[in-house]
Target: RSE1/DDB1/CPSF1 C-terminal domain-containing protein
Amino acid sequence: IFYYAPKMVESWKGQKLLSRAEFHVGAHITKFLRLQMLPTQVLFEKTNRFALLFGNLDGGIGCIAPVDELTFRRLQSLQRKLVDAVPHLCGLNPRSFRQFHSNGKAHRPGPDNIIDFEHLAQYEMLSVEEQLDIAQQIGTTRSQILSNLSDVSLGTSFL
Model:
């Protein structure tokens, strides 16, 4: 993921994009498509947020979408807790799966800057008692987490 920072020296006055994060998707991406996200919470809210829809060589479709800072922190804490609380599919750690592997080149931080909603969807499949316990451990409420997950689903409902 790159970002535009014209005031930073490394960007040569905005002529070069700077790397923000690198992560493993699971297959080679062949196409990106930028789509405007739908408004969340308030029905008539104007939004200027865009998500990237991508397709890969394995026939998979994915999406990269922005979330606000407070939601990111809450869901990041939930993601870290779920790595320990939920048994992994085939014994594979979702955190190490998203870790970027390079061929000797230096790389930026990866999985900590990205929230994996595929992994977070497991929260809704837990029992209510487990959901309440995990929400309490990360310092929030079950309803707030479910609201955040719903908002992201609504914002990317163009899929």
Observations:
- Helices lie at 69-85, 94-98, 117-120, 128-137, 142-155.
- The radius of gyration is 17 Å.
